[in-house]
């Protein structure tokens, strides 16, 4: 099943996509209520969410590890940051790049059906409404603006000294248009996140080309860990993290020239997002 949010006559609605028709639902995870719309006559919207929880790194190649096992040992548990729903844009919308540079990050967004907390691993699938494509747009050149100096204990020698501290992922991640979110939700009965190809393209050049086999933590492990920290609201988007970049020596620094061009992300069997880029 494929689900979608759309706007018709000024009202946000949801429904199931069947061919070129949308069968309206009372809400996105309820039974159809009968109304039918031609998909070409309505405005298709990004997934309507109030929470976006992103996994910071979930690829052993992005981490610089040699295997998933080493990656899991290095990370310990999934690490998270938040993107604000107010910066969400959809397919075809303009992405605004700072002059310091930009990069796409192809990811899968997991849509949560009902709110949950401290979920048992065996029940997690019951709470997954489906999957959509997500572009975690990033400006690596802006990250250092959130760094600062402080007197901290050096873990290498135990001495308190003036050290640089990396701040939160804010200026590099939370900028207007830096959360490109898909519109179509593909339900779990139609797709399994097993060896799905994931690609990103910038200025007509392939930047990322790998599969979900790179992931260190499974969706179930990610959701389980997040649910131990807080209550995950209904229709939250939880992203999987991205895959490695072609030829990047240090992925934390990897960035592309900001220019007026196009960026694309593609996830096999889930969807694609194509967005023009403009420099600000």
Q: Could you explain how this protein is built, in words?
A:
- The structure is a single chain.
- By secondary structure, the chain is mainly beta.
- The chain folds into two domains: 1-45, Roll (SH3 type barrels); 48-139 and 169-279, Fumarylacetoacetate hydrolase, domain 2 (Alpha-Beta Complex), CATH 3.90.850.
- 8% of the residues lie in helices and 39% in strands.
- The chain is built from three helices and 20 strands.
- The chain has helices spanning 60-63, 68-75, 219-227; strands spanning 2-8, 11-18, 21-25, 32-38, 43-45, 52-55, 80-83, 88-89, 95-97, 106-112, 128-135, 148-153, 160-165, 179-181, 184-186, 197-202, 205-211, 237-239, 261-267, 271-279.
- Strands 7-6-18-10-11-14-8 form a seven-stranded mixed beta sheet, covered by helices on one side. Strands 1, 2, 3, 4, 5 and 15 form a six-stranded antiparallel beta sheet that branches. Strands 9-20-19-16-17 form a five-stranded mixed beta sheet, with no helix packed on it.
- Strand 2 and strand 3 form a beta hairpin.
- The longest helix has 9 residues, at 219-227.
């Amino acid at each position: 099943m494929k689900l979608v949010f759309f706007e018709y006559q000024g009202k946000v609605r949801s429904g199931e996509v069947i061919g070129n028709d949308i069968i309206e639902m009372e809400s996105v995870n309820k039974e159809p209520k009968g109304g039918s719309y031609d998909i070409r006559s309505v405005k298709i919207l990004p997934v309507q969410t109030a929470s976006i929880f992103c996994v910071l790194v979930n690829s052993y190649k992005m981490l610089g590890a040699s295997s998933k096992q080493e990656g899991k040992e290095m990370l310990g548990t999934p690490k998270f940051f938040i993107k604000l729903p107010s910066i969400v844009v959809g397919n075809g919308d303009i992405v605004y790049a700072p002059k310091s540079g930009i990069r796409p990050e192809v990811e899968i967004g997991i849509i949560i059906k009902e709110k949950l907390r401290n979920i048992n691993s065996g029940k997690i699938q019951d709470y997954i409404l489906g999957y959509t494509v997500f572009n975690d747009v990033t400006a690596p050149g802006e990250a250092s603006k959130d760094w600062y100096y402080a007197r901290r204990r050096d873990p290498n020698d135990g001495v308190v000294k003036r050290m640089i501290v990396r701040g939160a992922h804010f200026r590099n991640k939370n900028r207007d248009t830096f959360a490109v979110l898909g519109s179509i939700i593909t339900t779990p009965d139609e797709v399994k996140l097993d060896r799905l190809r994931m690609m990103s393209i910038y200025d007509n050049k392939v930047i990322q080309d790998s599969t979900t086999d790179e992931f260190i933590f499974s969706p179930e492990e990610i959701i389980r860990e997040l649910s131990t920290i807080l209550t995950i609201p209904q229709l939250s988007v939880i992203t999987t993290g991205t895959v490695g970049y072609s030829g990047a020596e240090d992925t934390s620094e990897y960035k592309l020239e900001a220019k007026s061009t196009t960026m694309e992300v593609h996830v096999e069997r889930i969807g694609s997002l194509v967005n023009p880029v403009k420099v600000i």
